[in-house]
Amino acid sequence: MKSYLVHEGDNLDALKSALSQTMPDELFLLRFHPGLSDEGRKVAIELLGKTTRQGCVVLDVMDRGTPVIHHPLISLIQQAGIPNLCVAMDLNPGPAQMGPFEALHHKHPRDRSQTGVDFEGIRGYFKDRFQVFPLVKFQEESQLDVLYPTLMVFADAGIRWVQLEPLFPNYDVAVKIKNTFKMLRMLQRTKLQIQFSYFLENRRVWNSKTDNLFSGPIKLDMDVSNTCTHNCTFCTYYSDAGMEENKKAHGGKLSPDRVKLLAAKLDTDRGMKFLKALPDSVEFIQFGGIGDPYTHPQIDDFIQVARNRGFTSSILTNFSYMDHARLDRLHRLAGPSGWELHYVVNLAASTGETYVKVRPNQTPATFEKVIRHIQYANRLHEADPTRRIGFTLLLVLNKYNFRDMVHFVSLAGELGVNQAWIKPMEIHSDIHKEQLPVGSELEEYKGLVMKSILLADRLGLKLHNRHLLQAMLNKETT
Ligand code: SF4
Questions:
Q1: Does the model's pTM come out above 0.70?
Q2: Ligand 1 atom 6 nearest Cα
Q3: How confident is the model at residue 438, as a pLDDT?
Q4: 155 Cβ below 6 A of ligand 1
Q5: Is the CB of 232 under 6 A from ligand 1?
Q6: What is the pLDDT of residues 435-460, one digit of tens each?
Q7: Backbone angles phi, psi at 393, to 5 degrees
Q8: Structural domain harbouring 151
């Protein structure tokens, strides 16, 4: 989700630039500074309509003396194909805001919130044209007395999303909002999504200070496939040792439960519905699974839907299932920084020779293919610098590959990836214990960790868990 406030005097280049980075199904909130001219507002609305399918214009319930239902911009917003309208109103502002609408429409006292605005009436009036959401502003602590009944009315009317805009930070205000949220939870009004306004710089602070559990998920994992064709030695499920362990316990064959588990893939329709139904609060989605997400035949479609909605998408993969045509398509879904569409590539080696030690069923050719495809993605970026498929190169350390560490950092630097991730292996079973460096190898291991950190620093390469590696070394030396 993105938001933008247009000021008078804006030449709209900044808005154009923000819109150019907006994905087609991403919610984009557009609001106007009170001083902006009518012409400026019209141009901005037209730009929004042309760029995104999910634009949302924020208008005050009473804008420059005109009630929103009569506002001349409404027809323009509709003509521009913008499907969402956000109506901003003061909490309990007094009768001035309710009059014009109520004069025109019958009242539903039950549905009238304490904002003094018949929001349900406005929503009903626009029901064939827009999805309408409230944005509730308040300046004074005393206004908060009506926040709870207002939110109750919204919740009971089935309103999906409301934004709150407290206009100054204050401890007492935060406590009152927190208590309001507590009451809503106690009364099980938990379907309402309540977010602090996207136009507030400190909205995340408001969330944490008020214990806002209504704000919706921000990050999530989506497991799409448990299948993989590799057999990394450190893989709990697909390593030869992991397979043998299960077979040994089940008369020489994989247990039926394990066979079922490893074959599991997310049903495509279910996955699509899920992605489309996610609230706009989501910012980041990680595609993974017990296996490799690229063994799901529709993984690119999932990524496309997620990216079209503007979710930062990260995919944990061995990256061996790529081809140029696929990368060409993916490049079009990427953003400018390499983080918007990002691959965490479980490489586990820095040469073909080590690659096959860690993946006995592969050949050095697979390693070379993976590297070539990263280079190809980089060339796509050179040709079109506005987009970049990004990479984290991952090295899970074990006795087969730890001597690759420094060369791995140098390879990551050469490939110009966003970051390298040197990860000490997690110990979940005897399979992992058997792969730990032992005896004199341990000293060598620690020395190489230190050299890798220093090299990454010299290359200006970001190390994903640098502080953890550093802490590990500090612990060992104290
Ligand atoms: S690529 Fe991942 S899922 Fe596949 S064997 Fe290796 S660690 Fe396991």
A1: yes
A2: 232
A3: 87
A4: no
A5: yes
A6: 888 888 999 999 999 999 999 999 99
A7: -95, 125
A8: 2-215
